[in-house]
Amino acid sequence: xxxxxxxxxxxxxxxxxxxxxxxxxxxxxxxxxxxxxxxxxxxxxxxxxxxxxxxxxxxxxxxxxxxxxxxxxxxxxxxxxxxxxxxxxxxxxxxxxxxxxxxxxxxxxxxxxxxxxxxxxxxxxxxxxxxxxxxxxxxxxxxxxxxxxxxxxxxxxxxxxxxxxxxxxxxxxxxxxxxxxxxxxxxxxxxxxxxxxxxxxxxxxxxxxxxxxxxxxxxxxxxxxxxxxxxxxxxxxxxxxxxxxxxxxxxxxxxxxxxxxxxxxxxxxxxxxxxxxxxxxxxxxxxxxxxxxxxxxxxxxxxxxxxxxxxxxxxxxxxxxxxxxxxxxxxxxx
Length: 334
Hints:
Order of helices and strands: EEHHEEHHEEHEHEHHEEHEHEH
Number of helices: 11
Largest sheet: 6 strands, parallel
Mean pLDDT: 82
Strand content: 15-25%
Helix content: 25-40%
Strand order of the largest sheet: 9-8-10-11-7-12
Structural class: alpha/beta
Shape: globular
């Protein structure tokens, strides 16, 4: 346990006073204009009053304890030299608010501190912001094939690219292969201008954006030029054996059954695959089975395969995105 908590005082009026030792970290802990404190107050319905390096917490006993654990966990991140953004605060709140019955993740200790899964690259460290993200990130290292299924904005692809970048930097793999079905162009890319990279760039832009967040731009460009990072439309994967690689298939809901089987059987020695997609956004012609939906059904329970599911509660973009996803889900359910 970190030594940041030097004093705790309980009293019958549902108050708790905590103190932090390093005053230099307090401004980062509180956030700009105390935004971190304000978010915790809003979400947990507690009152937090800063008094120098002390904080007075007031409210229901359970929520006070949750706020204490959040503040302790944030402070420990700062002690480790990591930055704390408002999204990290939101993520900790989500993790800690998960009911005791759901505390099945190694990162969540009942009544204690929270230690979320992390993916570190030379440029940045990505920390899980929901229980589903935590389980998904831990599954990467435990399975050769991981499916990330759920709505937009839940971090499925972003976290997959982060993991790929971390493996490449550590030398655990020799290359990263990024693929996506180009359904909008019917997989016939010849009429588009430029070379192959130019033709598929519009479809793979989200993957490039994630790469640039994880790696320095000059490293990304050099790796693309040398082939260490390869982008390829799904149609061009046929007949290959992919060894010593992390292979990511994005927007997999738009694969056909044949394409998905072809892709999954490309796996070679010392390779791992991550397949992401949203079954509610299938753009295939009516009546055609999604390869993603079929694969998840067929491979559930198979050794070496993990299927991680996300819901609107795991959306980590603008809060409105979660409400939009929920509204559509309700409409489809009817």
